[in-house]
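A reminder before we start the practical. When you read a complex entry, don't treat the lines as separate problems. The point of joint prediction is that each chain is placed relative to the others, so the output describes one connected object in space. Small molecules and nucleic acid strands, if listed, are placed in the same frame. In the example below there are two entries. Take a minute to note the order of the lines before looking further.
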Amino acid sequence: MANQLDANVKDDLKTQFVTREGTYRLLTLSEYSRPNRVGYSNNQSSPQVRVSFVTLPNPSSKNNSEANVAAPQTAAGTPTTSTSSDKRTQLNSNGATTSTTTTTPATPTTTATTAISTLNGGGAGGDSNYNGGSSSTVDTRLGGGISMHSMTNGGVLDQNGLPTNQIYGGDRICFNFGRDLYVYAFRGVKKGTEMSKPIDKKFYKGTNPSCHDFNANAATPSGAPLLVGFTTGQIQLVSPQQGPRELRKLFNEERLIDKTKVTCLKWLPNSPHLFLASHASGHLYLYNEELPCAATAPSYQPFKVGDGYTILTCKSKSTRNPLYKWVFSTDNCCINELCFSPCGSNLALVSQDGFLRVFHYDTMELLGIARSYFGGFLCVCWSPDGKYIVVGGEDDLVTVWSLHERRVVARGQGHRSWVSVVAFDPYTTSYTNWDGGDFSDDENQLNEYTASREDRFSGDSTANGGFEGFDKNSTPLHTNRTRTHSASFRSDASSAALAPDKLAISYRLGSVSQDTQICLWDITEDVLRHPLTMRQRVNSTQLNDSSFLNGGLDADGIKVIRPVAMGQPSNFADSSSCSPIREAAGSGVAGATEHSNSSSSKFSTANCTISSQSSNANTPPDESCDTETATPAAATAANTTSSSKANSRSHGNSNSIKFPNCISATKSDSIDSSGPRVSNSNYSTSGYNSKNSNSSTKSNSNAGSSSSFSAFNSLTQRLTNFSFLSNSDKRSSGIGYEGSGSTAANHRQHRKAMSMLKSYNQHNHSNHSNNNRSSNNNSSSTSIAHSTAVESGSGAAIGSSATAHSFGSLKLSKSSHNSSLATAGQSSTSVSSYDPMKLIGTPACPRFEECPLLEPLICKKIAHERLTALIFREDCFLTACQDGFIYTWARPGHSTHVAQHMSPSQTTPTGGTVI
Amino acid sequence: MGANVSQLEREIGSELFPPNEHYFGLVNFGNTCYSNSVLQALYFCKPFREKVLEYKAKNKRPKETLLSCLADLFYSIATQKKKVGSIAPKKFITRLRKEKEEFDNYMQQDAHEFLNFLINHINEIILAERNSGKTPAAGSSGVPVLAGGAAPGNGNAANAKSSSNSNSSNSTSTSTSNGNCSNSTGSLSVLDGSGSVTATTTPIGQTNGANTEPTWVHEIFQGILTSETRCLNCETVSSKDENFFDLQVDVDQNTSITHCLRCFSNTETLCSDNKFKCDNCCSYQEAQKRMRVKKLPMILALHLKRFKYMEQFNRHIKVSHRVVFPLELRLFNTSDDAVNPDRLYDLTAVVIHCGSGPNRGHYISIVKSHGLWLLFDDDMVDKIEASTIEDFYGLTSDIHKSSETGYILFYQSRDCAA
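Here is the predicted structure of the whole assembly.
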């Protein structure tokens, strides 16, 4: 734990580093900053330097259609501008008329000096005459005593003067520094930057830009709408037009809606018009950029009251901005970042009060919360599959939260200061089957989906009615999407990963911190699967252990990740004795269908007790945790045919796992079971309840998770788990959990369950689900069948519940889990407390020693000032620093001098990360 | 007083102004900002203020001590008619200059040294008054002295420890470490690189067998560090407890206080001149040592060691490194047998050093009171936004000589606030 502390802090800045996939190199020529780099300027108290990135559509192929799309938008937008802000100089009036012409010298009526629009509809092919004068300079007064000086460059060309599509299409990068905002064409790893030629630079007076976001969905080859938020609360929308000018709108202009700093802006996924804005006040607002803001301070009425949050709507005859206002109950809950899940349906918020809140966006239901170990959460990111959320914050930790289980599953310690950005690297995150096509499917579905979302807000219908209508419409859509997905995933699965050494899904995570370091982390499934930690505090008796000294650095100085859940070599011997279970599980899975829990019915008594428990606890089929985690041990432990068979089978199983998260639990029911049965359950409310129930078993108490301990077959592991149990909850230490795994006697199980229940009653945590569990314990058997049915839906699972009955008292205790699952599911969204003193030791905030601790794969100091942004691209990643520099790091094999590797067709999703 | 003060009242707003709260600046008597800043920080450490006022209430006509002067000062602030203003701590300063020679001048003093002196001194006064017949505990005055060669027999130490635990606000002392608690030696007085002492401890309770009963100063500020030493020869692990009133941590550039605390508990190797006398081996051996927190105090005072002695300059220079401190803190460096390892702390006050060196510059303090952040600059009081605290983290470059940096952090345990 103290390993990296001893590393020399004063080591030089790294310009390259090595991971197992190769060498990452800093591209000194691909560096972005202010064009005029004056000497040192203190930017420390300025807003965080943030980076927005967008990839514009390719102009050559879709130019005409894009232009058509763009034109109406422009036409529609212009009147709005003119009416909404009379203070603003009307430089856009000419824009619409000149937009479709080529090389039209525009003469704006305002202060523009020379405005030669060098645009060429044909992708700037022949338009190679770059001249320095092709920029328009505009001085604009924005509302609230702030003004803007904007210089837009008409064209940027290749260094060689060759035709380039940088101006049309390509990538755009935007960053703020102090009072300034810059937009550059991002030229990737191939070419150096042209620092003197930003596409756009804006200098603000009276305010600082604090955040920004491109709308990739409304991007045209000439640019994408850019939202800019300010420290004084205003929000500016800058839309590109054909030509060197742009369309500007201002929201919250008079600061009537919120006076505090805009902390984060995000366009709704696949929405051209809707965006969310969070403020330092802790409030979150939904805007439609097509609608005007109310002329007076809006008055609100409650729209939805949830647990610890309230959603308000504007009380007005016509629909006005903001459409919704989200208010949270905790103090100091300045939202630091918000992030939509990859599928677009879930929203994660992190705030200064130390909370992660996850909502199903459309239903506005709270799906779960997590609490920092201490201090605020500063950043958030969804895993590419939407299963996990990673947050970073003022506890210097990277925290992994599972959406399925609604609990913190791991923490990463490696930074020396606050973690300012976390980002998954989808290109290095390795999947057992990943072909990159999944997202496109996703997006198609989403377009359809968002269309309905947009409809809701068009017109003057009250939000209320619109919402209901939407709810009816969207839910089927949602499930539709779900189905499509699972289908596509399953077909992927069939062709998937045959490599026998690809054992587990591994996520690559990057994080940057105020400590000027970047850390890369590999988060493997086996760690995430781990119910509770086996990590023990290094106590004095372990001083002899090498861990007291500083291990963990291998010869290259590369930090070796030591996922705590990895089986020790000594474990393998033990685990071999357990392999029959695994095989059984595997065959059960392979034999029955793709459902892991369906396998439970096939087990015989003793083993069944364990594995069915565990499979129930881990029900979501995309989890597959039991078999999968078991696999490494099995593979290494015994080379018998049986275990290898188990191995391959569990691969098949893990393939079927591959659901994107947001749909997961719902879909696990809806897909494989018949619809009606599901609708009996609490599915109808949010569709997440069943998922919840799983999580609550596993996580809400030690006891619940102990049921899934049995998924881990090594005796050592289990013992350590046990020792933890005694640690954290001394009362449950009488459980008698002697790692009896495969040979577990019934009475022992029974005793265990009973004592667990006892411990619930004594439990001090005011945890609803605990109460539920203990109360439901008596109601038992009748409800069991239902709950199991709800949970798994498949006939096989019902069989398992039937089996459960036959086990008598033993099963009764087991079924108390199941029943509690269902009930816990119902109360899942009710957060018992936002008090961090009560949350410690719960799934939302496990004690430090309760939670698996990750160590970074690498940890490198790469800047002198604190790092403020991290963006992963296919061939590179970008880091930004508070001193205003954005650095590009080429991935292995993508350095400048190997340009031949740069063909866009080359995709390296998994190639670089074969373990 | 005057315009500035009423402005504060206006800024806060009469309806938001906390009832029974007074924001009074302290007049500077010539470089007494080191005292003013610390006094303000202590005044807004609720448990401390309450105890001092309680002392005032109990001792109507006390003999004049530094504590009685402090109590008078606090009482005077707390009973002001006006809500804001300034007050002259004349009696206190006069007494302070009598009590301690080093402060009897108009030089700038080190705020931490003052804090250390004040807390220890108050503690002694309480002990002295408690055993008024007996002589007060022998000197912990002056520079912090380690309880280095404290009684090696573990009986005493264990007794002292368990009694202090049971009397403190924390529940259940397990004192499981009795077995390990042997083999303590004098090797704890290890000086770190810069020549200052790694941890301040007070000899009370260990050297003074008579005074094992903890005072309220103990209850508020005292924590226990346990130092584990592993002899590299015989692999025997010995551990030894010591009390502390505050933790002094080294600062690194671009780190957090969390990291500094973890470094504080880093393993260090005792070798060459600094070998460890192993009782088992009966000789000096190389050893590894680390210090972790075993009992977490109610108020955790963290002293950032920003004044480093530079031999080439023959003086202390200021280290303005940027060290961020969160508003909320838990400790990572707790020992395994710690009683309340996940105690949650809230930042309540920060003493800030402004300027370029230890003997020049200025001290101010920021405190949190009823959800408001206030900046006390001698007799001036201003309301500040919590977001401006980041201005006091420090500097990332060495270009600027002068800086305004957090110097002493006061974290208050949340469970004691309730």
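Discuss with your neighbour: Chain B has one domain: 3-417. What might explain this?
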